[in-house]
Fold each of these.
Amino acid sequence: MKKLALAITTSLLITAPFAVMADGASIAKDKCAACHGEDGNSPNDKVPSIAGFSVDGLTEMLNAYKAGDREGDKFKPEDGEETDMNAVTKEMSDDDIKAVAEFYASKAFKPAVQEFDAELAKIGAKIHEKNCEKCHSEGGASAEDDVAILAGQWKPYLIEQFEEFSEGERDMPKKMAKKFKKLSDDDKKALIEYYASQQ
Ligand code: HEC
Ligand code: HEC
C-alpha cells in the first residue's frame, strides 16, 4: 500500500507541473514574435526589444497593459494582424504572463544597429549620468530594479516614449518625473542619441 501511494505521488509530481504550466516559448512564438522577434530582439524599430529584461520588470509591464494603466500603441507586423499591447494581454492569465516573462528574461538583449549623432550622444551621456543613472544604471544597459533596458533600444520607439512622457500620455514614477520635467527639448534629443549610440 505504502509502495503504491509512493508510486502515485511520484507520478503526480512528475506529470502535474507539465500539465498545468504555461509554456512561455509557445506563447512567445504565437502571440509576441511577429512584433518583438523570436528571441525578443525586435526587427521593428517602433517595437521595443524586450530580451534580457528582468522577470519582475516584464511581469509588471505586462500587468500594466492588462490593467489598462499603460496604453498600447497599435502596430501591424508584416505577417500579422494589427493589434496593441492592451488587447494582447487582456486574455492572458497570471501563469501565462509569468511564463512568457521568464522566456524573454532568459534571452540576451542585442543592441539595435542604427544611426546616431556622436556629438549629441556625448552630451547625452553627461545628462544621463547626472539625472538617470541612479535607476537606469550602467548607462541604461541594466535591467536591474525592474526597469526597461534603454541602451541599444530602437530610436523611433524611444522618441515616441519620450513624447508620451512629456505630454503626460504615459505615467512615470514620481522620482523620475522630478528629473524628467527639468529636461529641455535639446536634453531629451541628446539622451535619445546617447541610448541609440550604445551598440
Ligand atoms: C502587434 C504587435 C505586438 C504584439 C503582438 C506584441 N507586442 Fe508588445 N509591444 C508592441 C509595441 C508597439 C510596444 C510599444 C508601444 C506600446 O506601449 O504599445 C510594445 C511594448 C511591450 C512591452 C513594454 C516594453 C518596454 O520597454 O516598456 C513589453 C514588455 C511587451 N510589449 C511584451 C510583449 C509580449 C510578452 C507579447 C506577447 C504575449 C507582446 N508584447 C506582443 C507591439 C506588440
Ligand atoms: C527613480 C528612478 C528613476 C529615475 C531617476 C529615472 N527613471 Fe526612467 N524609469 C524608471 C522606471 C521604474 C521606469 C518604468 C516605468 C513604467 O514602465 O511605468 C522607467 C521608464 C523609463 C523609460 C521607458 C522605457 C520603456 O521602454 O518603457 C524611459 C525612456 C526612461 N525611463 C527614461 C529616463 C530618463 C531619460 C531619465 C533621466 C532624466 C530617467 N528615466 C530617470 C525609473 C527611473
Note: The radius of gyration is 20 Å.
Amino acid sequence: MRLITSSITAIFISMFVFVQKPVKAQEPSELAQKGKIIADQNCSRCHVVDPAKKFSGISSTPSFQILVTALDDWEKRFSSFPSRLPHQSIVRFEDEEPEPNTTELRPPVILKHEDIDALVAYARTLLK
Ligand code: HEC
C-alpha cells in the first residue's frame, strides 16, 4: 500500500515538474528566427531590432528590447503595430493598395499578414 501511495505521489510530482517547465525555449523557435529576418529587413532602419547591433536604427525610435521590457502590453502593441502611429504611413500589407496621397518609403515596407506572428515571436525572445 505504501509503495502504491509513494508511486502515485511520484507520478504527481513528475507531472507537476513537467507542467512547470519554463515556456521560454533555449533556442529561438523557427517562427522567431523568421521574425528576426523580417525585422532586420523591415524595421531596423528605425528600430534597434537586435540588441547585439545597438548602433543600427535611429536614436529617436525605441528599440525592440526597450519596447518589450518597458511595456506590459508589448504583445498587444506588436500584434497591432501596423495601425499604430507612426506605422500607418510606413507599413502596408501585400494585399492592400498603397494610399493614393502618400509617398511610400524606399524600399517600401510591405508585409504578409502572417509576418505579424513571426515578429511577435521574435520580440518575445528579447524579454529579459
Ligand atoms: C520609418 C521608421 C519606422 C519603421 C520602418 C518601423 N517603425 Fe516601429 N516605430 C517607429 C517610431 C518612431 C515609433 C515610436 C512611436 C511613438 O513614440 O509613439 C515606433 C513604435 C513601434 C512600436 C510601439 C508602438 C506603440 O504604440 O507603442 C512597435 C511595436 C513597433 N514600432 C514595431 C515595428 C515593427 C515590427 C516594424 C517593422 C515591421 C517597425 N516598427 C518599423 C518607427 C518605425
Note: The mean pLDDT is 87.
